[in-house]
Structures are given as structure tokens and as C-alpha cells.
Amino acid sequence: MYTPPVGFHFKVEVLGLAPSDNDVRFTDVGGLTVDLATEEVPEGGENRFIQRYPVRAKYPDLVLKRGLMKQSAIWDWVKQCIETLTIEPHDVDVTLLNESHQPLMTWHLVGAYPVKWAVSDLSATANAYVVESLQLAYQYFTLDKS
User: Fold this and answer.
1) Tens-level pLDDT at each residue, the chain (146 residues)
2) Domain span at residue 39?
3) Which of 29, 65, 71, 97 pairs with 118 at a CA distance of 20 to 30 A?
4) Distance between CA atoms of residues 35 and 54, nearest Å
5) What's the structural domain count of the chain?
6) Does residue 3 belong to any structural domain of this protein?
């Protein structure tokens, strides 16, 4: 009987940055979606129908969340891109892992760069970790199922 994989065992790698065990650990990944945009064309002489034709694929921004880190190669890259506008795109791999830490499938995002960085609200009344959120724009992704 087939059991679907769990969604909490994954890693994120920004290719081309100095590898670090801490930089692959994110708590949340969102935005692994593709939509096929369509163009609507009214049917000539027929008011009941609108034809929809495929135009292009659209990929929303990738959103990554993790506990705030004081030092990180990813943070250095984000800071460089946002503060100096020296945009250096990197490919990003999001890999779903099995119980033996082996890849089940990998989303390979092409040409990613940061467009937003945020930190969670600070509150003296909450008992929570500070979470940083990183939003990446990218061109497209491919999916490799191992």
C-alpha cells in the first residue's frame, strides 16, 4: 500500500553559495506552484462562449521561513541584492527527503533572487522564536522525481 511522503522532511539549497548545514534548514517553503495563464477571446457571433487559449506558465514567488540567523551566506546574498542592488541570481534546489535522508523529489528553481526579507513581530508577551521570511522571484522550476 502506498503512503504519501511527509511534508516536513526537506532541505533548501541556494546553489553557488558557501555550503552550510544551517543554511539548508528552513521551517516552511511556500510557492512551489505553476499556473497556466490563458487569454480569453470572445466567440465570434456566439455570445454564450468565451474561448480560452493557453499563453504562458506563471510561477509565483518562493517564500522561505526559518528561525532568525545572525550569520548566514544566504543573508549575505540577500543583503547584497537588496542594499546594493547588485542582483546575482542563483539556482535553488528544494528537496523532499525520505526517512533515510535520501532525495524523493527536487524542485530546481532557475534564476532566483531575493525580492523581500522580513522578520516576525517582536513581542514581550509572546513566547516564540524570531522567524525570518525570505521571498525569492525566479524564472521557472523543473521537477526531478528520484
Assistant:
1) 888 888 999 999 999 998 788 888 899 999 999 999 999 998 877 778 888 999 999 999 999 999 998 889 999 999 999 999 999 999 999 999 998 999 999 999 999 999 999 999 999 998 899 999 999 999 999 999 87
2) 10-145
3) 97
4) 10
5) 1
6) no
